[in-house]
Specification:
6-stranded parallel sheet; globular
Length: about 450
């Protein structure tokens, strides 16, 4: 099928790259000329495992192209995925102006029949507004639109895997015919008929993805409901961790046992310095604002958000308890990205901690496998190191703020030898407390006995 992707951000590139990889002809459009120039030159502006090889292969097979020409891309498309950003406004609601602008162009430039799919995370009832906008802006009668909601459940760092091997594909439609067209788009994924870039030796056999058809309103709600629930789960684990610290229990033992209950499940129960990224913080806010406008006080979500913000205070307090005065101390930071396997630093808890350390007069040396370039622009006074050992050299403390697996594999004896004071504060419970103490570290983590 001929598919156009509007918006070459993270979701747009993964959607476009994966749909091209499974056999569709994809045109990706963006109004950022610099971004398009880089993409045309073969550069992928985000770090996402497997995405570059996937796009390079599709490009060499002539199945993906990048352009700034929105009108042309709309005209040629049978299906249009809207993947533009919906950043938070000052009041926490989602800014839908990019969707409105795109709707205007789709409406004026389309001829014939188009499937218009909202992939961007949007509040409930955006589909209704989108349908109305297409009618209002459209040249009456020249085009027929079917609006579909198709939320993404992609995790940064493993989004190619998530796209090609989803648990479920949710499509919200007005008419069954639109669901049939969506099933056609996703058929190679539903039937697992594609060359998988993630599992070169053959994909693991598991249950096939569920294709779940709903109304548009339900589909839009599902995305916010999932993200907010996962955020709640993390905040619950974090409160448990605080209680464990007061009562001398070990949060890892508690959450591991909880996760053995299939009704609870083991994922998203890792305590630490809290959730970040561009999805959870903004989605949870957008969701309770939406509830508020519908006349409902969704206090449970506000509380989860408050607990998450408190994680930073809690951790900085721990650092201060260990170091007493921060002014003049040399603090090493391992990890800047909001999670491993990404260079994304948006709303990263590590950055807020960095800000506090600098404000208190500490001198900071930092390392992250992917996130340093972006952090440098915001924090020019930090010293960025070539590796974790350089971070440790002369440090009064090392803080572990993103759970990159490679930090677990470090030669911690070497780290120890390089530090002025062998103090490690592990904000992600990545390391083994006993092992760290055996190596002679003063080691503190979250919700585990010191
Ligand atoms: C999330 C959803 O998982 C995904 O389905 C949705 O489409 C987009 O939002 P993402 O933002 O990429 O994905 O990251 P995710 O892996 O969910 O982690 C979010 C944050 O929570 C990270 O900062 C992570 O470190 C933190 N986290 C996660 C915890 O603190 N504890 C956990 O147990 C899990």
């Amino acid at each position: 099928m001929r598919i156009t992707i509007i918006g070459c951000g993270y979701v747009g590139l993964v959607t476009g790259g994966c749909l091209a990889a499974v056999g569709h002809h994809v045109t990706c459009v963006d109004n950022d000329a610099e971004r398009i120039r880089a993409l045309v030159a073969g550069q992928i502006p985000i770090y996402e495992p497997h995405l570059d090889e996937l796009i390079a292969r599709a490009r060499s097979e002539g199945r993906i192209e990048f352009t700034g020409n929105l009108s042309g891309a709309i005209e040629a498309a049978e299906a249009i995925f809207i993947c533009v950003g919906t950043p938070p406004l000052d009041n926490g609601e989602a800014d839908l102006s990019a969707i409105d602008a795109v709707a205007r162009v789709i409406a004026t430039e389309s001829r014939g029949s188009k499937l218009v799919i909202e992939k961007s995370t949007v509040p409930v009832r955006t589909g209704e507004q989108l349908r109305r906008a297409l009618e209002v802006y459209g040249r009456a009668g020249k085009a027929k639109f079917e609006v579909v909601s198709n939320p993404e459940f992609l995790r940064e760092g493993s989004s190619v895997l998530d796209f090609l091997h989803p648990d479920r594909i949710v499509v919200g439609v007005e008419e069954p015919a639109a669901a049939d067209k969506m099933r056609e788009i996703y058929r190679p994924i539903l039937e697992r008929k594609f060359a998988c870039p993630v599992h070169s030796g053959g994909c693991p056999q598991g249950a096939p993805p569920q294709f779940f058809v709903t109304t548009i309103n339900s589909s839009e709600l599902i995305k916010h409901a999932c993200n907010s629930f996962l955020a709640l789960k993390i905040s619950y684990a974090n409160q448990l961790a605080d209680l464990c610290e007061r009562l001398g229990a070990d949060v890892e033992e508690v959450t591991r046992a909880m996760g053995m209950d299939p009704r609870i499940g083991p994922q998203f129960l890792n305590a630490g310095i809290g959730f970040g990224g561009f999805c959870f913080p903004k989605d949870i806010q957008a969701f309770y604002r939406l509830a508020e406008r519908a006349g409902m006080d969704f206090m449970l979500l506000q509380e989860a958000e408050r607990i998450n913000k408190d994680r930073i205070d809690h951790f900085v307090e721990k650092v201060k308890r260990s170091l007493w005065v921060l002014k003049g101390k040399q603090v090493g930071v391992l990890g800047l990205a909001f999670k491993p396997n990404t260079d994304d630093i948006r709303f990263a808890p590590a950055l807020e901690i960095l800000r506090r350390l600098l404000a208190e007069g500490a001198s900071v040396r930092a390392y992250d496998p992917q996130g340093m370039k972006k952090t440098q622009a915001q924090f020019p006074t930090v010293t960025y190191c070539r590796d974790p050992y350089e971070v440790a050299a002369g440090a009064d403390a090392v803080l572990l703020l993103t759970e990159w697996p490679e930090f677990r594999e470090l030669d911690w004896q070497r780290v120890h030898n390089q530090m002025v004071r062998p103090l490690v504060l592990d904000g992600r419970n990545l390391l083994n407390p006993r092992r760290m103490r055996d190596l002679g570290f003063e080691y503190h983590s979250i919700g585990r006995p010191d």
